[in-house]
Design a protein that fits this description.
Its main location: membrane. It is a single chain. This protein is of the alpha+beta class. The chain is built from 17 helices and 12 strands. It folds into 3 domains: about 120 residues, no CATH class; about 110 residues, no CATH class; about 170 residues, no CATH class. Helix 10 packs parallel to helix 15. It is elongated and about 100 Å long.
Length: about 500
């Protein structure tokens, strides 16, 4: 661990009268009855708190759902029933399990019990033996749900922090892989791991993330998506500045390119930063395909993004203000299709876009089999009924369906949601000001992206600032020998250091 990490951990543990959670230290009662009563009061007399009197002098306390019962019976109870040791130090030194320590603070004792620790109390001693045997119940490893791919690894993260760390270490068998642990949330006390490869990740990025995690004061933390909003550069922006991924191969690929990773206990999504705007539209499968195929897929993906955002606004602007740009052969079918539609194009487009969003949201919230049926049948029925009722035109149905289909090509779910949202203000501006409104929103969008940063690095890299060396793995994917391994933002920081 480097000097910055040592200073951060030292600042967290400083102070003789308070523990790491900021609570005042209170010594454990030496009498067994008083100790048991104090633990019960601290935990508000929970039903799952187990108190067992092993011998006349030894008693143990634990939460029955948080510890491994087989380890308890085989390595702790059996030893305590047969031992003649009457000192906490001797018991802790002879227990044949790795995670054993002594504690005198009752707050630390309670917090440890909530993390899968068996508390061993000897009557007449304020020192407590803490034996860590947490239960390892978790969801089994399965294929990623939101980042599926045909070629490549089919294993995704689950909600267990230890399992996720072991997956990462299987991909990166490197002693330079650093893992710093934090506890966040005054109520939840959630474990968070900061991972990076020492010597590859930029010190500025590591120190920035470490400082933001250390200074974070929140009541609870349940998921990594909430943590991203708390530590990213601009939480008011619609665009995410950190990447959420459920793929360990993509996460490790980011660490190897100089990024900093965060894994949250209880969440199946890991965080990568810094990230550029272009990386949200790249898939890990691109590196597994031949470079001409991967380049074609990426170009197709970016074309689909343009279609998803601008086709509907172009339709609205053309029919409202700019009939002259429509080719003559297409103008007649458009006029016939809209002859019975009583609404202006802007209302017609927003109405259909809202229907598509309702169908998408309903399909996502319903069970899988029912959701697929609702999406297909609902789209066909509502589309046909809307055309027959004269509410919308056939051509707009095709355009809306094409835009919805194109939006699904975005590999990242968070960025896909952004594309869904920004279509609506662009449609409204196109309905009021035509092509001028579209260009106005495009300029506003571009200025906003130019102002965004990710851990202080440029969001639109490698195009702004322009770096030709990084273009081979941006919109196109050239052969591997032409691609630099180090991430764009880390390389920019390295170049600044050399200039200084």
């Amino acid at each position: 661990m480097n000097k910055g990490a040592g200073e951060a951990l030292q600042s967290q543990s400083s102070g003789s009268n308070t523990n790491q959670a900021g609570q005042e230290e209170v010594s454990n009662p030496s009498e067994s009855a008083a100790f048991i009563n104090a633990i019960q009061e601290k935990t508000h007399y929970p039903a799952d708190l187990v108190v067992r009197i092993v011998t006349e002098k030894i008693s143990i306390l634990y939460f029955e759902n948080l510890i491994e019962s087989n380890f308890l019976n085989e390595f702790i109870l059996k030893y305590l029933q047969e031992t003649n040791h009457n000192e906490p130090e001797s018991i802790s030194g002879n227990l044949s399990i790795p995670g054993v320590e002594l504690a005198t603070d009752i707050n630390k004792t309670v917090n440890s019990m909530l993390n899968g620790v068996v508390c061993i109390h000897l009557n007449g001693h304020s020192q407590i033996v803490l034996a860590k045997i947490p239960a390892r119940e978790s969801r089994g490893l399965s294929a990623p749900e939101n980042e599926s791919q045909v070629i490549g690894s089919q294993v995704g993260f689950n909600e267990n922090l230890s399992t996720n760390i072991s997956l990462i270490r299987r991909y990166i068998v490197n002693p330079n892989l650093s893992n710093e642990k934090f506890r966040l949330g005054k109520q939840t006390n959630t474990s968070v791991s900061l991972l990076y490869i020492d010597g590859i990740a930029a010190d500025e990025h590591v120190n920035t993330v470490r400082q933001r995690l250390s200074n974070l004061s929140i009541a609870d933390l349940i998921d990594s998506a909430s943590l991203v909003e708390l530590i990213e550069d601009s939480s008011l922006s619609l665009f995410p500045q950190m990447l959420l991924t459920e793929r360990p191969d993509r996460f490790c690929d980011g660490l190897l390119s100089g990024k900093v990773g965060i894994v949250v206990d209880g969440s199946s999504m890991a965080i990568l930063a810094p990230i550029s705007f272009i990386e949200f539209f790249q898939s890990k499968e691109d590196s597994n395909l031949r470079w001409p195929v991967a380049t074609f897929v990426r170009l197709l993906r970016f074309a689909a993004i343009f279609i998803s955002i601008y086709f509907t606004p172009l339709y609205v602007a053309s029919l409202t203000f700019h009939y002259e740009v429509i080719p003559q052969p297409l103008l007649v079918p458009l006029s016939e299709s809209r002859a019975i539609v009583p609404f202006p194009p802007i209302l017609e487009a927003i109405f259909l876009e809202l229907i598509i969003e309702l169908l998408r949201e309903a399909g996502a919230r319903l069970p899988t089999k029912v959701g697929q049926t609702i999406g297909i049948v609902g789209g066909i029925v509502l589309g046909t009924a809307a055309v027959q009722a004269g509410i919308t035109s056939n051509i707009l149905i095709i355009i809306i369906a094409l835009c919805a289909l194109s939006s699904f090509t975005t590999p990242n779910y968070m960025m896909g949601n952004v594309i869904r949202v920004i279509r609506f203000p662009i449609i409204i501006c196109a309905g009021f000001w035509g092509y001028y409104g579209i260009m106005f929103t495009l300029c506003i969008l571009l200025v906003h992206l130019l102002r965004q940063t990710s851990l202080g690095g440029p969001y639109l890299a490698p195009f702004y600032p322009a770096r030709l060396k990084d273009w081979p793995d941006s919109i196109v994917r050239l052969p591997m020998p032409f691609i630099s391994r180090q991430s764009i933002n880390s390389r920019l920081i390295t170049n600044k250091k050399k200039k200084k």
